[in-house]
Amino acid sequence: MSKKLHGIGASNGIAIAKVFKLEEPKYEISNNTVSDSASEIKSLETAMKKANADIEKLQEIALEKLGAEKAAIFEAHSQILQDPAMIDEAKKMINNDKNNAAYAIHTVAQKFITIFAGMEDPYFKERAADIKDVTDRLIKYILNVPVLDLATINEEVIIVAEDLTPSQTAQLDPKFAKGFSCDMGGRTSHAAIMARSLEIPAVLGLKDVTKQAKHNEVMMINGTTGEVILAPSADEIKTWTAERTKFFQLQQELLAFKDKPTVSKDGYQKFVLEGNIGAPKDVQGVLDNGGQGIGLFRSEFLYMDNDHFPTEDEQYKAYKGVLEGMQNRPVIIRTLDIGGDKKLSYFKFPEEMNPFLGYRAIRLCLDKTDVFRTQLRALLRASVHGKLGIMFPMISTIDEFKAAKEITLEEKANLIKDGHQVADNIEIGMMMEIPSAAMLADQFAKYADFFSIGTNDLIQYTMAADRMSQFVAYLYQPYNPSILRLIKTIIDGAHKEGKWVGMCGEMAGEEQAIPLLMGMKLDYFSMSATSILNARQVISKLEVPAMEQLVAKALTCQTAEEVLALVQKTTKSALNV
Ligand code: PEP
Ligand code: MG
User: Fold this and answer.
1) pLDDT tens, residue by residue, 12-70
2) 196 and which of 11, 445, 459, 485 could share a cystine (Cβ 3.0–4.6 Å)?
3) Where are the domains of the chain?
4) Is 257-575 a domain of CATH 3.20.20.60?
5) From the alpha carbon of 506, which atom of ligand 1 is closest?
6) Starting from the edge strand earliest in sequence, which strands make up the sheet with 227-230, in order?
7) Residues lying with their CB under 5 A of ligand 2, a single-atom ion
8) Whose C-alpha lies nearest to ligand 1, atom 6?
9) Does domain 3-24+149-252 sit in CATH 3.30.450.20?
10) CA 454 to ligand 1: nearest atom
11) Quick check: 268 and 305 in contact, CB under 8 A?
12) pTM over 0.85
């Protein structure tokens, strides 16, 4: 019997494949002694061979996907595995004391881990984690516990997990990872954002899919509607396969909009459609989907997929690559937006009760100015390779914006003094994602060159509803009239000072939001690359004056449902929905 679940459609498309359950298997290491030491030694050696093969494979993949520096970690793993000091000691314990192989490796590893972890030098401290990683793998092989490596998946699967960290998502190869479904998360969690940039269907917020799904059993997910079927019947597979074909056909039809200008039915040509990216490699997806620029490069991924704060030169290369790739189209790079759910393995955040309301993003950068200045210098140096806008995340007060801008201008002057070239047309703007800033938009507009509305956070902070929590998902309401009023306040405040406004939150690409945003005369719409062509199609079918009337009515509504009903009624015939 198949089983149906319902979650939040987080990345469009349909996937049908076997379940790959990403959960750390639980196992126990007993200290039972053995009578046959020879067979224990053999099982240790077999485990070593398997672990070695894995590590070689991981090294190859890392080299191809992440570069030589990251791949070097696996070189270190391979050395640990060959280290006679550790392996010989374990073998002695097996031969002399009749310990079992898993226990022997575990005991020796613990000894080395304690020594390394206690060292002052951060390089040796990190080796403790490497020893744990390698010996855990060995122990799992000895105990016949499944060893899961996302990067080594080599058949078509749907990943099932409690949650996926951004760096786990980045390891997924869309050739094999056909989709993913998680207990946690929603449309704006970072796993969702990554899924859309990898163009993988995803259903999140399923609450207990990890309990319900069985490893290796077939499952189907619809990332558009949020439906999931576990162990589907032959008939269900047939119906969904046909749906999937239809989805691909629609995608093909949208390609007709790739090289067309963005223009509304009544000829308004000022809307610009751009892509959001998390890494330089995402540029191609934006171009392939007819993006006219990049409205948000989330630079924090450079920091998160790393084991140290990226240097000025490392960052310069990444920013230069994006600017050159976009061939003089506008590119907005957001300065480090870290904290909340976005952590760094090499930096300890203070313990806080509410990290989403705490020490993060621009607050951290204005405190750790060395980190901030390094990034700004890299950005400013890269500015000569294209058309750069710099924006600051999580601005709450005018003083924060002024301070961030002042540091930027100081670094610009320093670079010029040192003989570097810096473009003179860089725009300096800010995210509008905190209600205190939104309410004062007309005042902020005197200082910022542009605003980019971050609805993902603006909604969470206005509604006081955690964007990651499935328990308060009903309060996460983009169409609540309070949110629409704030968006209108931001756009009008900027336009009053002759400044432009973009939106880079997920709402910018939503089919029901576009009519409202057209009516408010938003200038730039920045979204997942895969939403751009549909947005262009929607705009081509609607007329701006009618959307202005729609907005006037929507602003007087009391509930999100009323707004959505109004949008549907007004656009139904034009959009054929
Ligand atoms: C936002 O908050 O809307 C946004 C675009 O930023 P992020 O999703 O990275 O917080
Ligand atoms: Mg944000």
Assistant:
1) 999 999 999 987 778 899 989 999 999 999 999 999 998 888 888 877 876 776 566 66
2) 11
3) 3-24+149-252, 37-143, 257-575
4) yes
5) 3
6) 3-6, 227-230, 218-222, 14-21, 157-161, 177-182, 202-204, 8-11
7) 433, 454, 457
8) 454
9) no
10) 3
11) no
12) no
